[in-house]
């Protein structure tokens, strides 16, 4: 049953989570030297920066076991629960909705396709990504970072030789 005041929580598409983390996360913005975007349409709660920083930790975790632990903590903390008789979720506190929705999405992603979350390997970038490549060997958030990193490695090798 639903409580009065409970808020429905949708499971966010993982691509939107990646955008949330990279737009708002402290580390992605500092390392990438970008300002925070205007806060639009994100509703109440601890704020997108706080949520983005917690999500970033999930992507940056050393393995999927640690990721699962962080996600469980978030789910417990938001007290998100399934709505009986519907394929839906709810929280009592609207301020928890963003974190709950993100945690649900990450849990689904981890269960469906483990080992696919990561943080860009480029020195000047801390953006996160979901690896959808067939081989699952992605290390960079974008081809821009991949190219920059390769060029830097090439220059380094040339200097050393
Ligand atoms: Zn990158």
General description of the model:
With about 160 residues, the protein is mainly alpha-helical. It has a single domain, classed as Jann2411-like fold. The chain is about 50% helix and about 10% strand. It contains 6 helices and 5 strands. A 3-stranded antiparallel beta sheet has the order 1-3-2, with helices on one face. A two-stranded antiparallel sheet has the order 4-5. α1 crosses α3 and α4 packs antiparallel against α5. The radius of gyration is 18 Å and the shape is elongated. It starts with 6 loop residues before the first strand and ends with a helix. The site of zinc ion (ZN) has 8 residues, from loops.
Summed up:
The chain is mainly alpha-helical and 161 residues long. The chain has helices at 14-24, 26-31, 48-60, 64-78, 97-112, 143-160, and strands spanning 7-9, 81-83, 88-91, 117-119, 128-130.
């Amino acid at each position: 049953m639903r409580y009065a005041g409970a808020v429905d929580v949708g499971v966010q598409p993982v691509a939107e989570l990646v955008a949330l983390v990279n737009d708002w996360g402290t580390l992605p913005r500092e390392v990438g030297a970008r300002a925070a975007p205007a806060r639009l349409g994100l509703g109440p709660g601890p704020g997108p920066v706080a949520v983005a920083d917690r999500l970033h930790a999930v992507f940056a975790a050393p393995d999927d076991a640690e990721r699962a632990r962080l996600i469980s903590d978030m789910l417990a903390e938001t007290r998100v629960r399934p709505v009986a008789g519907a394929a839906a979720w709810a929280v009592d506190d609207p301020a928890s909705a963003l974190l709950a929705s993100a945690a649900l999405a990450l849990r689904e992603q981890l269960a469906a396709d483990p080992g696919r979350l990561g943080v860009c390997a480029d020195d000047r970038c801390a953006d996160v990504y979901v690896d959808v490549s067939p081989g699952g060997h992605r290390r960079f958030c974008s081809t821009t970072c991949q190219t920059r990193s390769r060029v830097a490695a090439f220059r380094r090798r040339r200097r050393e030789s």
